[in-house]
Amino acid sequence: MPQAEDERSMTALLRDFLRRIRGLLFLGGVGVLFYFLQGIAQLLLVATLIAYLLNPLVSRLQVHVSRTNATLLVFGLLILTLVGGGILLGPVVQEQIQDVEERTDVARITKVVGQVDQRLSAMSRSIGGREVTIQEDLNQKVDHWTTGLVDMAPNLLGIVTNVVLVPFMAIFLLRDGPRIKRGLIRFVPNRYFEFSLEALHKIDIQLGNYFRGLVLEISIIAVLSTGVLWILDVPAFVLVGLLAGITTVIPYAGSLLGGSIGVLIELATPGGMSTAALVLLAFLAIQIADEAFIQPLVFARAVDLHPLEVLIAVWIAAQFFGVVGMVLAIPVTSAGKVVISEGAALIQQYQFS
Amino acid sequence: MDSFWDNIFRQTDETSVHTLLREIPLFDELSRGELSAVESILHRREYDPGEILFRQGNPGVGMYIIQEGTIEIVYEPTDDTLATLSNGDFFGELALLNETPRSATAVARTESVLYGLFRPDLLGLVERDPSLGVQLLLRMSQVISERLIQTNEQVQELRERLHEGASDGENSSDGTDELAG
């Protein structure tokens, strides 16, 4: 009898060991995959965000139709909205860009920048510094960007592939999300199983509220900015308004940063100095309104980030993932903060054997 | 795509889970399709002898159905075994309705296979399929009310025994008084 018991416990031990190895291999595999396929990781991140945002809609529709049909229906509606928006807004934006080009006095900008160069150089020389060459630096930057755009042409196929890949991944994640989640939970050791379920559920609620709040905030700021810019008769008001909305994801100065493009456009327009000041004031007001009223209203529970956390997150993301990383840095950092704070709060309630 | 994830995360054949669920009073009146919906939110877990399923005092997350094995429900301060459950039994269903902490610890006594049904998943199912949700919650309230009736009867029985004991004590003390007098 004791021998049989020994054999049984050895089998149990071996099975437990294999289960842990399987879990570790899976996690390790995911880590290696993310490290070597950073490009795919970015796409997956974007697709996950899209799937996460659309999940509540699919779940609601699932009452009436299958999850596959609900997913396809929601995606169909999204594509229709984007195409419709593109058809409606495309010509307007194009017209506005042309308008900016026509109203911008290039000679005047060159003259102003030249004067600034001379003044700053004189000041710099008086304290024993180097010559200031903003104009030259700007020209170099413009050349660099233009070359970058030309170089991008051969990569167009890659961009198109990504545009197709992201929605495909998002559809896949959206449709099979619950099954993937359940499958992944299987790898969690028994002692952490209930804790993981509870933690995932709470994090899911918090993140859902955060991302849906973020979309609402972006929409409100975009509409508000577009309206204000239209009233002030700023060229490219739709484009700048949308940009101000998107940059709202960066806390403390987001919409102000996006709106500063409007200020620059006005500064480049002859006689636009007073309007530029008004645009700057308007975006300051929008920024304050966002921090004071809109954010507390749309976020069920605010995910507060310290200004230093914001700076570090944006800097690291810019180093590794470029512009896409910069836009996604704050939502991803906020999501990470939610995961850590909810996990920490739950750990205190659980005692692990 | 279904088969893709099913192959990666294959758990067990659907029929045996359906048979198991049909034996549970909570699900015995559900159709095949409804059972599949419930099965889609179950979590299959395997436990070794001595492994703890949940600890007394930890937040209650959901209920477990035993497919195979023996589970002991232990009251920790005294280490008293409150119940020994085996194949086809279920426990922890109160946690589906309430977020109260677990009132006892559950330990696997043999190698066991269990299916867990958890509150967040159940609430999701209720939201997606309200008619199935109503059926499940109704059955759950019936099971809980039956248990409440049984508990009331046990309390009544204990109370009567207590009264009998008290009156026996009074009678015997009266007798002693008489003898002393």
Give the structure's gist in a few sentences.
Chain A is mainly alpha-helical and 353 residues long. Chain A has helices at 2-36, 38-61, 67-103, 106-126, 134-152, 156-185, 190-231, 237-246, 254-268, 273-298, 307-349. Among the domains of chain A are: 1-36; 189-353, no CATH class.
What does this structure look like?
The complex is a heterodimer of chains A (353) and B (181). Chain A has 353 residues and is an all-alpha fold. In chain A, 86% of the residues lie in helices and 0% in strands. Among the domains of chain A are: 1-36; 189-353, no CATH class. Chain A has helices spanning 2-36, 38-61, 67-103, 106-126, 134-152, 156-185, 190-231, 237-246, 254-268, 273-298, 307-349. In chain A, helix 2 crosses helix 3 (67-103), helix 7 runs antiparallel to helix 8 and helix 7 (190-231) packs antiparallel against helix 11. A four-stranded antiparallel sheet of chain B has the order 1-8-3-6. A four-stranded antiparallel sheet of chain B has the order 2-7-4-5, with no helix packed on it. Chain B is an alpha+beta fold and 181 residues long. Chain B has a single domain (2-180), classed as Jelly Rolls. Chain B has five helices and eight strands; from the N terminus they run αααββββββββαα. Chain B has helices at 2-8, 14-22, 32-39, 119-128, 130-180, and strands at 43-47, 52-54, 62-68, 71-75, 80-85, 90-91, 105-108, 112-118. Chain A binds chain B through residues 8-9, 12, 15-16, 59, 62-63, 172, 175-176, 178-180, 182-183, 185-186, 190-191, 193-194, 197-198, 201, 204, 346, 349-351, 353, and chain B through 1, 5, 8-9, 11, 40-41, 43-49, 51-55, 57-59, 61-62, 111, 116, 118, 120, 124, 127-130.
